[in-house]
Sequence to fold (265 residues):
Amino acid sequence: MVKVVRYPGTEISSHQYLDSEDFAGALREMFDGALSFVLRNLPKVQGTRSVNEPGRPLVPAIVFEELLVNALIHRDYFIESPVRLFMFDDRVEIISPGSLPNHLTVEKILAGNSVIRNPILTSFASKGLLPYRGLGTGVRRALAEWPAIQFTDDRDANTFLAVVRLEKVQNEPIKNLQTGGNEPITGPLDESKVHRSPDGEPLRPIEVQLLNALLGHPEWSYDELGQQIGIGRSTVMRHIQALKRRGLLRRVGAKKTGHWEVHLG
Fold:
């Protein structure tokens, strides 16, 4: 079972909640139910959308996809306890039964190491049971999309905790960081803030990292960008294409000998 609760404020309440549901059954049913619950309760960002269109979730959906898959596949099923997901005004907590197995630590997970606790479930997940994208890559992929995630291996409580911080979108326009007009900027952008691009959409942390990397090294390839940030080539390409569509990046020159220009005005 996955037990999910949306509490008002920033603390667990014994007598009040805004939304609550229990999801039991097949793994895919629990995954889909919990993910839908999170996405409907997350703060929304309007950006350039009209008031008649739904805003997009503040935190990219892929972050919770990766964390929920990890919770369902790598939890300790010998412990008779549900996966618990608690939502607050400032954070989302995902609590999995069972501390990290063997000699695995949070630091090793962040480095891409993994120990398979449930090999049969993992094998089925890799065949399409869940959106499983590779052993040892889920945590790093989630962090690449949203760095404000904390992990705690609580061996006393025999649980593993992931906390996703919900950063408040600040009205910090990009134009305050550029030289003016439509000229390429020299940056860098401040990764501690949530900036807005000229189209009104906030820049995701991974987009800020990519733009800063290209400001310093406009000649870098997809592979070099991925190595620098710690993400895969396909993820780099997906975000680069999105930035190009929004007019924030422009390729100048030939494919092999050209360079990138960052336009945020």
The helical segments are 27-41, 61-74, 106-110, 119-129, 138-145, 205-216, 222-229, 233-245. The chain is about 30% helix and 20% strand. The longest strand covers residues 91-97. The radius of gyration is 20 Å.
